[in-house]
Every structure is written in structure tokens, then in C-alpha cells.
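Q: Here's a chain of 136 amino acids. Please give me its 3D structure as C-alpha cells.
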Amino acid sequence: MRYWATTIQQMAGLCHVFAIALHRAFGFKFLILTDKNEMYKGGVPAVHHVYAVDNQGNAYDFNGKHPASNITQQWLHIERGSWHRPGVVQVSTEKGLSKFVSDDWDKPLDSYTNQDVKNALDVAMVKLSDVLPKSK
């Protein structure tokens, strides 16, 4: 239990790194839940969460495998009156995701290193071992 508590703490705020790890390992695409109520430099919306999505429409994050269509519908239909202005962005490449990433505070997602991605993949391979494909 202590291992997972530490891992969750380390992965908090790094959902994009987790998704990048799965993208690099399995060729998954990205599903980005955005919030247009908060905008960053260059008109980039805030990011609520990033999932990795396989070709069968399954979305993966630290919590497991989910139908991507359910996630998208739930996010886009947030209770009226909420302060969120939800949006969904789908990108196929890490370069496409990079418009949300910065070393500074001018973009919603923090920069990362190859070691960060490797560490995230190590976590994913253990945490999601029962739901990930066996190979790329």
C-alpha cells in the first residue's frame, strides 16, 4: 500500500507524462480534457486531464482502462452552472501534445524528461498490467 501511495503522489499532476509513456510504448494517441475558462499564453486552454487512447477507443490513465466515449461525454456534459467551460482535444503525436507543455507557467502542463517518461512507463506496466496490450 505504501508503494502505491508514494507512486500516486509522484504521478499527481503528471497525467500527461503517464500518457506519453503509453504513447511511446504502444503508439496510443492522446485525449486531452480542457477547460476554456482558464486560458494560457497563445490561447491554450487549461488542462483538466490527459489520457492515452488505443485504437479500440479505450482510454488509459493511472486509474485504469475506461471507454473514451464515456469520459468525453461526462466531461462535455458537466453540470450547467459549473464554472468549467469543458473542451476535448485529441492529438496523435507527442508534438501535438507539446503545445500544452512548458518549462514556465505560460502553459498548463509541466515539462518532462525522458527519465520521467521511463519512470511513468515502469509504473504503468505494473499498475495496468492486466489491461495493457502485450506488445506494440
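Q: Can you summarize the key feature?
A: Residues 98 and 109 are 9 Å apart (CA to CA).
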